[in-house]
Structure formats: C-alpha cells, structure tokens
TrEMBL record:
PANTHER family associated with the record: SLL0310 PROTEIN
Gene Ontology molecular function, alphabetical: acyltransferase activity, transferring groups other than amino-acyl groups
Pfam families: Acetyltransf_1, Acetyltransf_18
InterPro entries recorded: Acyl/Acetyltrans_Enzymes, Acyl_CoA_acyltransferase, GNAT_dom, YitH/HolE_GNAT
Name of protein: N-acetyltransferase GCN5
Protein source organism: Caballeronia calidae
Membrane-spanning intervals of the chain: none
SUPFAM superfamilies, alphabetized: Acyl-CoA N-acyltransferases (Nat) (SSF55729)
Ranges for domain N-acetyltransferase: 17-156
Domain of life: Bacteria
Length: 297
C-alpha cells in the first residue's frame, strides 16, 4: 500500500487536500489498497463495482496523490451501501478519513444505508446512526473435486437463464434492483469466474458466482431456496478448483448457511457487523447462504 508521506502539521482543511469522485483507474488503486489491508478482493472486481454506481466512489488526494478512499454506492433512491473505507496508515487519525466519510454519507443522504464493518468499529458507526442487524462470518475451506453430486437439482450456466429471471431472483434476496451491477457481476471474465443457476424443472431455485481473488476464490452471492439447492451450487462451483482455497461469507443468523460451511470443513476466519441506518431490509436471510461482497453488500 503506497502513498506519499504525510507532511508535518497537515490538516484536512488544507486546500491541498481534495475529495473527488473516482474514475475507473482510481477504483483499481482502491482495490489494490484493499488487498494490502488483507481484504482479498477479486481480480476483476473493479469494473463490476464501478458499474454499480459510477458516481458512488470517492478518493481523497493530497496535491493530486491518493491518500484515502470510500465507496458509497446508491442502489436507486431508497438504499445505499458504504465500503472500501481506507485511509493510508500514515494519514490516519488526523481527520482525512472523516472528510471522505462525510462525502459518502452526504451522497447517500435520504436512503437506508448499510455496511459491513469490523466488529471493533461498531461504536464509531453507531455515532453516525448505524444499528447492528446481524453478523456475517467469513469461512475458509479447500475446494474438493470429490464432492457428491446433489440429486434433484439441475445446475446450469447462469447465462442460459434469461437475465430478467435472474434479476428478479436477486432483487428478492437483496431487497432492491441492482441490475447494472448484477449484469456486470454475471459477466466477469470466464477465465476467472463462473456464474451458475440451480433449477428444478423451469423453476429457478438458486444463483451463485465464484471468482478468483488474490488468494483463492470467493463465492458470492450464494442465494438458494434451501440448503439442498445451496449445497448443489456450492459443490458445482468448487468441483473444478480442487485444492484451491475457497471463501464464503455467511450471515450468522442463517443456521443452514453455517451448516453448509461446517459440513464442507470450512473454518471461521473473520467477522463483520452488518449495520443499517434504518430497519434492516426485508430480505429472506434463510435463503442467503453467501453474501455478494462486504464492499457493496
């Protein structure tokens, strides 16, 4: 994680400090910083993230050089999500991050805002009006090609299902339409990602994506009507990656999702606090077996 040195006495009110919207190359830098923080983003996340809301990414610069960033993605007029909140270590504790935070929160004003924050930062987020809804737990395991095929569920490439059907399913799980993001997410480069659908006849029972990251692969989302369909999707996704590390971010309040991780010998390695400024969206968490991303919800 590289940045320019922080001058002695630098303050966020100095005219040399500017907060502006990111361009696509700035998002690449932000994700490089996220990787340096150990967040392990996907190799191709930047383009899909930017498609979600080209106006919702902010960078703080000193004399034109980036020193911090935040994403504040607006999903329409009712919902938004904060993520990628990073200030270079040398610039922390001096108020530069608060300028970024305020820019993102102002942009999302009037919406219910969500975030996945580290547990220790909950008191700070509460000061901005966020309330804990539940915890998400990151599980890590190793992909195996020896998993049994799950009977009664047909697994197909998501591209073979009409996009509007996939969008309708995703919207019910996410609580709002995120068509631009979903279209980009399902179109990640095939050499690094797979998107699968679970079918029972003509009925869509699940949707999942796996993508290559700096370390291993992350699954997200993993949406399914029940554990049976979720298990079928999980095994289909990992079966072509034997021996590779696999990560799955699970809402702790969904016991079936926790059971899926445990039955595949995955171990808890990290937790976040899912928080909202208003009531938690009315989504069927029993069908959320894997969060899409901690950065965009």
């Amino acid at each position: 994680m590289s940045s320019i040195p922080c001058p002695s006495g630098a303050t966020p009110d100095d005219p040399r400090y500017v907060v502006r919207r990111m361009n696509p190359s700035d998002v690449d830098v932000a994700l490089d910083w996220a990787a340096a923080e150990g967040w392990n983003p996907g190799l191709d996340d930047a383009r899909a993230f930017f498609c979600a809301d080209p106006h919702g990414f902010f960078v703080g610069t000193w004399d034109g050089a980036p020193i911090g960033c935040i994403s504040a993605v607006a999903y329409g007029d009712a919902f938004g999500f904060i993520g990628l909140y990073i200030v270079h270590p040398e610039w922390r504790g001096k108020g530069f991050g608060m300028r970024l935070w305020n820019s993102g929160m102002t942009y999302l004003d009037g919406r219910n805002i969500g975030l996945d924050g580290v547990l220790a930062q909950q008191p700070n987020y509460r000061k901005s009006g966020f309330v804990l809804a539940y915890r998400n737990v990151r599980y890590e395991g190793v992909a195996s090609a020896d998993e049994d095929v799950v009977d009664g569920v047909t697994i197909a490439d998501a591209a073979s299902v009409p996009f509007e059907r996939l969008l309708d399913y995703d919207t019910r799980m996410f609580a709002c339409d995120r068509a631009a993001f979903l279209r980009a997410w399902l179109s990640l480069p095939p050499e690094h990602a797979r998107a699968l659908a679970a079918l029972d006849g003509d009925a869509l029972r699940g949707l999942a994506v796996i993508r290559r990251c700096g370390t291993g692969h992350k699954i997200g989302p993993l949406f399914a009507d029940d554990l049976h369909a979720a298990r079928a999707l999980y095994r289909a996704l990992v079966s072509v990656l034997p021996g590779e590390p696999v990560f799955l971010d699970v809402p702790e309040s969904n016991p079936a999702a926790v059971a899926l991780a445990v039955e595949h010998d995955m171990k808890s390695v990290f937790e976040t606090a899912r928080m909202y400024t208003r009531a938690a969206p009315d989504v069927p968490l029993v069908k959320v077996f894997g969060v899409t991303t901690f950065e965009l919800g």
